[in-house]
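User: quick one, fold this
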Amino acid sequence: MQAPLAVLGFLLGLLSYWQTSDWRWILGAVILIANWPYTFLCIMPTNNRLMAVEPAQAGAESRSLIVAWASLHAVRTALGFAATAAFLWASLH
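Assistant:
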């Protein structure tokens, strides 16, 4: 559900820019859609490595992968907050 909503938010941001010519809408739209390539390039390799670990073989390496995954996911959350802030900034002016 996150991916379609990110695309919808991106398109609505572009539409808002087209209607207002306010660059802040583009900023929010680009930050919002940046979650897609970030997920594919940064998070998916970690996900794949985690999924390859058999539960019986879990250990220190899988624990470090989970910690890394949490940090990577925090960046996704920060991108969402940044996009929201940019859209709010654009809507207040």
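User: anything notable?
Assistant: The chain is about 85% helix and 0% strand.
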